[in-house]
Hints:
Number of strands: 5
Strand order of the largest sheet: 1-2-3-5-4
Strand content: 15-25%
Helix content: 40-55%
CATH class: Alpha Beta
Amino acid sequence: MNFEYEYHKTIIFKKISLFTHSLLNSPASFTPRPELIEVIFRAISEQIDITQTGTVNVAFLSDEEIQELNKTHRGIDKTTDVLSFHYFEDFTGLEDSEIAGEIIMSEAKILSQAEEYENTSEAEFAKLLIHSTLHLLGYDHEDDEEYKEMHTEEQKIEKILLEKMGVRIQ
């Protein structure tokens, strides 16, 4: 996937048990803490008992850019809070340098949803990162059964996040 946006800075986080993660740019309104991201991905890895390799890129785009991606890839001509793109069905055995997937977030949606749900911007970012990573790993919410399974996993990870980082997600 070729995105047309400027790379403000690249931060490579240390290798963790799920993927190597690369934050391609930082939102202007808050800075995602590397230790928060690490706790989230460790919790996901432990909760769903998988070992994955490769890099997941995380980027923040404008609502207009996300709307265009949503229209192009999902046929939905409106903005959304987060999009996940996985490039392999099985991530096992990928080199750290291989891009396993990308998570594209809307900074504007993070801020508006944080206010709507009475979360901090960090908590809303964490909520979307958990949700989108589960999508990368094959979870979905197209029907009631899938929704229940995905939501249960999200709640387990959110509980770990509260215990380890003090981040409460509403």
